[in-house]
Design a protein that fits this description.
The chain is an alpha/beta fold. It has two domains: 215 residues, Rossmann fold, CATH 3.40.50; 97 residues, UDP-galactose 4-epimerase, domain 1 (Alpha-Beta Complex), CATH 3.90.25. The protein is built from 13 helices and eleven strands. A seven-stranded parallel β-sheet has the order 3-2-1-4-5-6-10, with helices on both faces. Strands 7-9 form a two-stranded parallel sheet. Helix 3 runs parallel beside helix 5. The protein is globular, with a radius of gyration of 20 Å. The termini are far apart. The protein binds nicotinamide-adenine-dinucleotide. The site of nicotinamide-adenine-dinucleotide has 29 residues, from helix 1, helix 5, strand 5 and strand 7.
């Protein structure tokens, strides 16, 4: 039906998740087309069939890519994260909502051409939750997918709406039009905070944990912007990438919903600091809560219920907190910063 080259599109490929995901997709034999508004670095480029520096708000550029390649699936990672979004909410909306809508349009056009639904992977976030007060938060059991959906950040609002856009496009797109075509097979994961040994995060509100670790590895002091007893769900980057790939491959018949919570461990900031100090005894970590950022973290759940992901597509993280440190983060940051012991 088409002579375009089959490929997997990864937007935001130059970001934290993108780096790991592109490598894994290429290792699995995919033709990866990597797109980012920033130059895609050499380490990532070597795994790609094609790269494109461009803005997801540029629909014409996206459509040109869609003419050149037959996108079998799209991993739409490009986004403006939660802290940046609170400084520039209108820009966050433009990138996170209008940009997402553009990608869905390109996916729908690709599906109409190729005759099958394009798998559309959307990393959502625990930022979609908004728990009104600390007392409720402290007494709440791990939060399920339907609870507390009253986000307090522009980023959280954007992600929640992105999930709805995906559901709409998958089930109801242009439902009154005379002709109907396949659209997208939309699958979304609400990620907790992610910790990577290879990249330093920027612009997220759960960044205090990875920032603490990378600062300790570099021998720099770190003032944590949340309180010591602040608890939040986290996950090691390899488990996050595994989860994206696993959900993308899961038989559709097994999926009972289009959006899944996942989590691996939920330490307090103090527990995280204790582990950092165990491996970097000279780590200079202090706690200087920034009350505004602290309030954002406080509106997110202390832990999530990921029963559905475990049941529907076999989600099972390999890394608990200790293993994340001993087998992934510590060897990784030592390598990254050229440390010999
Ligand atoms: N890292 C986490 O802890 C976490 C947690 C939950 C959800 N997520 C989601 O996962 C996705 C990837 O996150 P990440 O940690 O890799 O973020 P990141 O900020 O490291 O990467 C995002 C990438 O998107 C690119 N980008 C931003 N605006 C763009 C635009 N207009 N056009 C094209 N590219 C643009 C950036 O240059 C960047 O390389 C995001 O959608 C994020 O919301 C991340």
């Amino acid at each position: 039906m088409t002579s375009r080259k089959p490929a997997v599109l990864v937007t935001g490929a130059n970001g934290e998740i993108g780096h790991s995901l592109v490598r894994r997709l290429a290792a699995d034999g995919a033709n990866v087309v990597a797109l980012d508004v920033r130059e895609i670095d050499a380490a990532c480029r070597t795994h790609c069939t094609a790269t494109q520096v461009g803005d997801i708000n540029d629909l014409a550029m996206l459509q040109r890519l869609g003419v050149e390649f037959e996108f079998t699936s799209i991993f739409h990672l490009a986004a403006l994260l939660s802290t940046r979004g609170e400084f520039q909410p209108e820009l966050a909306h433009r990138v996170n909502v209008e940009g997402t809508l553009n990608l869905m349009r390109v996916a729908v056009e690709s599906a109409a051409n190729s005759g099958y639904a394009v798998t559309f992977m959307f990393p959502s976030s625990i930022a979609v939750y908004g728990i009104a007060d600390t007392k409720t938060r402290a007494s709440a059991p791990p939060v399920s997918e339907e609870q507390y959906l009253a986000p307090q950040t522009m980023y959280g609002c954007n992600k929640l709406y992105g999930e709805h856009l995906g559901r709409y496009t998958m089930h109801h797109y242009r439902r009154l039009a005379a002709e109907q075509h396949p659209t997208i097979d939309f699958r979304s994961i609400r990620f907790p905070g992610l910790i990577s040994a290879d990249t330093v995060p920027s612009g997220g509100t759960s960044d205090y944990a990875p920032e603490m670790l990378h600062a300790a590895a570099k021998g720099e002091p770190y003032a944590c912007f949340v309180r010591e007893n602040m608890r939040l769900p986290f996950m090691a980057m390899p488990d996050a990438v595994d989860a994206l790939l696993q959900l993308a491959e899961a038989p559709k018949a097994n999926l009972s919903t289009h959006v899944y919570n996942i989590g691996a461990f939920a330490p307090s900031a103090a527990e995280f600091a204790t582990l950092v100090r165990e491996f970097f005894p000279k780590a200079n970590i202090s706690f200087k809560p920034d009350l505004l950022r602290q309030a954002i973290v406080e509106s997110w759940p202390a832990d999530v219920d990921d029963t559905r992901a475990r049941r529907d597509w076999g989600f099972k993280p390999l890394y608990d907190l200790r293993r994340t440190f001993s087998e992934y983060l510590i060897p990784g940051v030592r390598r990254r910063y050229g440390m010999t012991s």
